[in-house]
Design brief:
Helix content is about 60%, strand content about 5%. By secondary structure, it is mainly α. The protein has a 5-stranded parallel sheet with strand order 1-5-2-3-4. The chain is elongated.
Length: about 450
């Protein structure tokens, strides 16, 4: 009488009476071995190339799309595999068992994954159910089948949405503070602007991570991102993106149509950055600086205050310096790790010195602009003791100098703005600046 295939979800199977060499371990590719969705992996392996092939294929419809996805180039070495399942496969191989993947679609990709992992082949669910055309005795099967993975946790979602990056969106409060227009109405509109930018930015982060899946998985730190690691399903991210953007639109309409226009410009620039601009040398830096400055412009539009040209120019130099420091940190990390030049950025490790020099120059320009502002007539209506603002110059010089030194020592994470919120001396410096500004009013 034929014995049914034995199934288990975890652990090593109990030894069978059959010889170890005669047994076979079959593993469901999707739902067990692969922490991601194979269809989505083919879609986002090289999205720009996929769209180009589909547009030039001459055969519209699902048949053409299926054919293109079947021929998509996937980096099998960096897919998010389940480590527990791989360990079970290694244990079975050590006992002499044959290892087969179970895949019902994209047989070519399944075979490529099996070959990369050193497995013995691929079988279909239909063949496995019928017991025909199998390269092993059906009575000697151990199986790791699809498992009901738990939904992504709140911590995983917070990581994917980059909640810690919301600190950048506090820039929308800057125009209210510098214009000395602090009241419940303006703070309420500024809070709505903050929420709108946070939702819009989170959707953009998810989109960027989808487009950068292949590059992130080869990066020493970005490979731990929720989508790259398989902690969050690609399909879940695809549903979250429009939801976040619809919320951003609704919050914007509660402020004004003009604010919605500014937010739309921010989103359009962000999408252009993710698709094209981030791969252009220095264009990416200028774009990042512009995106930071757009937050300040949006804050002024949202609360209805006139934006000072001094603030705008000062901000542009500050954010250009920070964007250059970000690139410096990324390249220095690659140099320290002995990695090659980044494939998705138009920079080389040998550019470190010039990028560092440009970052320092932009920072000093920001201090110069601030000095000119303090000595101008524009400061008189806002401050009763404007001379106290001169005390901010040494603090600015100290903070920029420290940021550059930390980046040079490879002690700064990728984002210098997040560093400013987490670094103790930076927080002390910012607190001192705030106290001086309050005393100068």
């Amino acid at each position: 009488m034929e014995q049914p295939a034995r199934q288990y979800d975890s652990g090593v199977p109990t030894p069978s009476a059959s010889p170890a060499a005669a047994r076979a371990l079959v593993i469901d590719l999707e739902g067990a071995l692969l922490r991601s969705e194979l269809l989505m992996e083919t879609l986002f392996s090289r999205p720009a190339l996929m769209l180009g092939r589909f547009g030039a294929g001459g055969r519209p419809g699902m048949a053409a799309l299926t054919d293109i996805l079947a021929r998509a180039e996937i980096d099998y070495a960096h897919l998010p595999y389940d480590s527990d399942v791989l360990n079970q496969a290694l244990a079975a191989r050590a006992r002499g068992a044959k290892i087969y993947l179970v895949a019902g679609r994209f047989a070519g990709h399944a075979a490529g994954i099996a070959a990369h992992l050193g497995f013995d082949g691929v079988v279909t669910p239909a063949d496995l159910a019928a017991g025909e055309k199998l390269p092993f005795d059906r009575s000697s099967i151990d199986r790791i089948d699809s498992q009901n993975r738990s939904r992504a946790s709140l911590k995983t979602w917070a990581k994917a949405l980059r909640v810690y990056q919301y600190a950048k969106n506090t820039l929308v409060f800057v125009p209210v503070i510098t214009a000395h227009q602090l009241n419940f109405a303006t703070l309420g509109y500024a809070l709505l602007a903050f929420l709108a930018f946070s939702a819009c930015a989170s959707g953009a982060y998810l989109m960027n991570d989808l487009l950068d899946l292949a590059a992130d998985r080869q990066h020493p730190t970005k490979r731990h991102r929720a989508l790259a690691a398989g902690d969050l399903k690609i399909s879940s991210a695809l549903l979250a993106i429009p939801t976040l953007w619809l919320f951003a639109v609704a919050a914007s309409l509660c402020i004004s149509p003009l604010f919605l226009g500014v937010l739309g410009g921010y989103l359009a620039t962000t999408i252009a950055y993710s698709l094209v601009l981030k791969r252009k040398m220095l264009v990416d830096v200028v774009t990042l600086a512009g995106l930071y400055s757009l937050r300040i412009i949006a804050g002024a539009v949202g609360v209805g205050v006139v934006l000072s040209e001094w603030l705008l120019i000062f901000s542009l130099f500050v954010f250009t310096s920070l964007a250059l420091i970000k690139r410096f940190s990324e390249l220095s990390m690659r140099e320290t790790a002995g990695l090659a030049d980044p494939s998705n950025r138009d920079y080389r490790v040998t550019d470190l010195h010039i990028i560092g020099a440009m970052a320092a120059a932009s920072a000093m320009n920001a201090v110069t602009v601030f000095s000119l502002y303090v000595s101008s007539s524009a400061v008189m209506p806002l401050y009763s003791r404007p001379w106290m603002l001169w005390l901010l110059n040494p603090l600015l010089l100290y903070w920029f100098g420290r940021a550059l030194m930390m980046a040079h020592r490879r002690e700064m994470p990728d984002d210098p703005i997040i560093y400013a919120f987490r670094d103790g001396p930076s927080r002390t410096t910012v607190a001192a600046m705030i106290c001086i500004m309050l005393a100068a009013i």
